[in-house]
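Weekly modeling sync, notes
Attendees: S.R. (lead), two postdocs, one rotation student

Agenda item 3: backlog of single-chain predictions. S.R. asked that every request posted to the team notebook include the full sequence so nobody has to chase files. The rotation student volunteered to paste the first one in as an example of the format we agreed on. Action items at the bottom.

Example entry:
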Amino acid sequence: MRWFFMKYEIGARIRKFREQRGLSQKEFAQLIGMSNARVSNWEQGLNRPDVDILSSICNVLGVEPNELLDIHIKDGERSQERGLSREEELVIAQYRKKPEMQHAVRLLLGIDKS
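Predicted structure, as returned to the notebook:
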């Protein structure tokens, strides 16, 4: 029974984060190199993504794997694990929440040239 809930939960979370990013299923599927039907199946809880695609999913959605998988890590543990201060964690979180600002930030930092 847990398998069903796990499939449904990750699919629901993918959908939630995809919609927060303003992506259609088709756009999201193209960005991760999967078919629209496969993404639809994940979101409906019919199956779940393979582990090897999770990194791409997280990158496109702008979330950490623990967020996608709903694994709770104490604030201090994640910062220590990654060597980041609490302030740096907050900056990263805000950056990921605002896709419309990401390009501007990358330009300011000299990461994007266009």
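Discussion: group reviewed the output briefly. Confidence is low (pLDDT under 50) at residues 1-7.
Action items: rotation student to repeat for the remaining queue; S.R. to check formatting next week.
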